[in-house]
């Protein structure tokens, strides 16, 4: 491929990251209007969960589809599915229609967000150049994440919430057109028989597992365990099947690759902590500081800007430092952020939250690029597509699982606080606290105690996220020690 074609194709693929960043933040702004119009407050959790479920179960399948039909065809198909989901969400006459369309959009997003990174490995063989391109793609996601809440608010106020989804259509069409015309590379297709049984078991297993996770804190522990155990058994069955087929959906050999397993564990731990900041810092600003939803959402902007800068800096750092040294820098920034949030008092300022967001954002930007390159570098060329998509799956599962865990932690703190209030404070009152528009209706005498209860829950969440970061530090310490021993042995010999 010529240099100009590479630039055009990269631009088209970066558009997919921009759409992902836009959808990730714009939906939050539009949710109140959607729920009000479609009368779906009881389904609010599933609006987020069903999208993640669609992405999770489809991600490995899209990479396999790319191997069979070509990554160009896979990307175009995934983007079309994403468009269909977006269109039908905009047209949704009721909440069930909306949730179904959101699942379709999630399925498309599973391929649209991962296939580009596989294509980058095809057209940019030089690791440093590929790292730069991945940095640009990450920056595209971060950039649209910054403006997403503002664009979403403007669209909802000026037109209607339906246009929040319609905005994806011209961007997706532009991306598809460019890739269709300019992506000219001869792809080596995998002609092996499709592993349908493994695919079905994986979809059923992941679906059961994720439903179990989503039920944490809202259903009986027995129902939660039943779904998780069934999911685990189906995944185990799948692994047995994968040993006997010619071309498995997820080859078991990946789990025998120590370096790759470590990369995936680091991804899971870091992104499990990252989601705590993403969800609960806006709630901190609203519930404890009494700020509006817009101002609360703006706590994410410094982190998004820092993420952008970190993504662009990582390729430069890569030239001078080892992979784990780069990840260690990113992890240190994570640690500063979550340690600061854990040790912060209830009277911490809004500016403090913004500063902690900067550290967290830098950590995300640096670690994502370094880990994604590591995932692709630590496997054979034939396993680059599946390892890339599997890394994405691990991040989705980690964020979904930890989101539920954090929700349980907060609920336990709220239940305990309400119980200790001797009936003065109810759960209904606590629900109102995080909404500045209705918080003023609460009895002023009890607001300090309510804020204290809420802060205790968020404080425990930040501690949990910090523990995940400490686990990453322990793993990195082990890796550095092992590397030092190897170097010493080489010198001795």
Overview of the molecule:
This protein has three domains: 183 residues, MFS general substrate transporter like domains (Growth Hormone, Chain: A, Up-down Bundle); 54 residues; 236 residues, Growth Hormone, Chain: A (Up-down Bundle). 81% of the residues lie in helices and 0% in strands. It starts with a helix and ends with a helix. Helix 2 packs antiparallel against helix 3, helix 5 runs antiparallel to helix 16 and helix 14 runs antiparallel to helix 15. The chain has 19 helices and no strands. The chain has 493 residues and is mainly alpha-helical. The mean pLDDT is 85.
Question: Topology, please?
Answer:
Blueprint: H1 3-38, H2 44-69, H3 71-90, H4 95-112, H5 115-123, H6 127-158, H7 163-166, H8 168-182, H9 196-214, H10 221-242, H11 258-288, H12 293-297, H13 301-318, H14 323-343, H15 350-377, H16 384-420, H17 427-433, H18 436-439, H19 447-492
Provide the CATH topology of the largest domain. Answer: Growth Hormone, Chain: A
Give the proportion of residues in helices: over 70%
Overall outline: globular
Distance between the termini: 46 Å
Supply the CATH class of the largest domain.
Mainly Alpha
How is the main sheet built? none
CATH superfamily of the largest domain: MFS general substrate transporter like domains
What is the overall number of helices? Answer: 19
State the secondary-structure class: mainly alpha
Domains counted in the coordinates: how many? 3
Q: Any guess at the CATH architecture of the largest domain?
A: Up-down Bundle
Number of strands: 0
Average pLDDT over all residues: 85
Unreliable spans are: none
């Amino acid at each position: 491929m010529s240099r100009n074609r590479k630039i055009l194709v990269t631009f088209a693929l970066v558009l997919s990251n921009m759409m992902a960043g836009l959808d990730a933040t714009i939906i939050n702004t539009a949710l109140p209007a959607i729920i009000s119009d479609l009368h779906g407050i009881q389904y609010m959790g599933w609006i987020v969960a069903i999208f993640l479920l669609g992405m999770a179960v489809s991600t490995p399948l899209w990479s396999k589809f790319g191997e069979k039909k070509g990554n160009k065809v896979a990307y175009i198909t995934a983007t079309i599915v994403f468009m269909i989901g977006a269109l039908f969400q905009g047209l949704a006459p009721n909440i069930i229609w909306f949730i179904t369309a959101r699942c379709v959009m999630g399925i498309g997003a599973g391929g649209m967000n991962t296939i580009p990174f596989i294509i980058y490995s095809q057209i940019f063989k030089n690791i440093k150049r590929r790292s730069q391109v991945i940095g640009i793609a990450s920056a595209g996601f971060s950039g649209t994440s910054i403006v997403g809440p503002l664009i979403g608010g403007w669209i909802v106020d000026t037109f209607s919430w339906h246009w929040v989804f319609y905005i994806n259509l011209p961007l997706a069409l532009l991306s598809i057109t460019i890739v269709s015309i300019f992506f000219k590379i001869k792809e080596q297709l995998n002609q092996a028989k499709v592993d349908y049984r493994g695919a079905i078991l994986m979809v059923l297993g992941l679906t059961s597992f994720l439903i179990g996770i989503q039920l944490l804190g809202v259903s009986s522990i027995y129902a939660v365990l039943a779904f998780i155990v069934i999911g685990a058994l189906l995944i185990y069955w799948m692994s047995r099947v994968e040993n006997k087929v010619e071309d498995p959906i997820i080859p078991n050999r990946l789990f025998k690759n120590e370096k790759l397993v470590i990369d995936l564990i680091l991804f899971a731990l870091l992104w499990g902590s990252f989601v705590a900041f993403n969800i609960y810092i806006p709630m901190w600003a609203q519930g404890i500081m009494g700020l509006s939803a817009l101002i609360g959402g703006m706590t994410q902007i410094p982190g998004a800007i820092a993420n952008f800068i970190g993504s662009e800096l990582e390729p430069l750092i890569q030239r001078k430092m080892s992979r784990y040294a780069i990840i260690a820098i990113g992890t240190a920034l994570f640690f500063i952020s979550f340690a600061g949030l854990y040790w912060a008092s209830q009277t911490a300022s809004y500016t403090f939250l913004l500063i902690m967001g900067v550290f967290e954002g830098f950590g995300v930007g640096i670690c994502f690029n370094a880990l994604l390159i590591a995932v692709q570098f630590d496997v054979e060329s034939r396993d680059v597509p599946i390892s890339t998509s599997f890394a994405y799956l691990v991040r989705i599962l980690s964020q979904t699982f930890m989101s539920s865990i954090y929700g349980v932690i907060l609920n336990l703190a709220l239940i305990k606080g309400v119980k200790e209030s001797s009936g003065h404070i109810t759960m209904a009152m606590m629900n109102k606290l995080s909404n500045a528009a209705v918080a003023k209706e609460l009895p002023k005498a009890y607001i300090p105690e309510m804020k204290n209860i809420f802060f205790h829950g968020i404080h425990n969440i930040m501690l949990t996220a910090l523990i995940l970061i400490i686990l990453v530090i322990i793993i990195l310490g082990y890796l550095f020690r092992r590397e030092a021993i190897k170097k010493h042995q080489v010198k001795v010999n």
